[in-house]
Amino acid sequence: MGRFRIGFCVILVFTLVQAQVKRNDELVQVSTIDALLGGIYDGEVNIGQLLKSGNFGLGTFNSLDGEMVTLDGICYQIKADGNVYKVSSSLKTPFAAVTFFETDIKVICKDTLNLNQLQQKIDSLIPSPNYLYAIKVTGNIISATARSVPAQKPPYKPLVDVTREQPTFSFTNIKGTLAGFRCPQYVNGLNVPGYHLHLLTQDRKAGGHLLSLVADSVTIEIDQSDSYRVILPHDKEFSSAVLTGNKEEELKKVEK
Questions:
Q1: What value does the mean pLDDT take over residues 35-60?
Q2: What is the CATH number of domain 26-255?
Q3: Among 143, 169, 194, 197, which residue is least crowded by beta carbons within 10 Å?
Q4: H helices present in 24-146, as ranges
C-alpha cells in the first residue's frame, strides 16, 4: 500500500508539472474581434496584466489608440503618427492576443516572397490547419506597407468606418519583425481567421498592421498553441452589445 501511495504522488507531481509546461502553449486573448469591430474600444485589462499571460503578440489600446506589437516581453505602441512608443504597465487594451513564444518550427528562407507567398510557405510548414499558431518572421524587407489607427472619441464608430481614414506607412529596404498569429476558420467571431500580422522595424522606430510585403532572406519561426483562453469584458458596453450575425465582410475590409 505504501508503494502505491509513493507511485501515485510521483504521477501526480509529473502531471502537475506537465500542466504547468503546457500553459506556455496557451494563446490568451482579451475580448473578441467582433466586439472590436462593433466599436467596443475600452477594455479593463492593463498591459502589466497582459504580459503575465505572454511575451509575444499583438492587439490595440484603449480608445483604439494605435497598433500593438509585443516582442520579448516588451509591449510597443505604434500610433497614428507612425512613431513607436514603449507603453506603461497601466495602459489598457480592449483587444489583444499573447502567448509565451517557444519556437516549434524554424526555417530560414532565402527566396523572395510577397505576403501571399509567405503565408503559403507557412501553411506548408504547419502540421495541421486546425491549431492556432504564433508566427514570427525576421529578416530583410524589400518593401512593406503598414497602417495604424488614430485614437477615437466616444461615441465610437465601428472599426470599418475608422479604417477608411487610416494613415498608412511605406517601408523600403529595412530589417524588421512580423509578429502575429495564424488562426483556423472556426475562430470566426472570436479572432481573425487566417493570418493577422503586425510589423516592427529592427530599430523599434516604426511599424503597424501589415497590409503588404515583399521580403527575402527571412527566418520563419512558428509556435503551436494547443490551448485557447478568452478573457471576456465585464463592462456594460460588452454586456449589451449585439454580437450576432456574420461580420466576415467587415473583417476583410478592416484587415486589408
A1: 98
A2: 3.30.1330.80
A3: 143
A4: 33-37, 47-50, 115-125
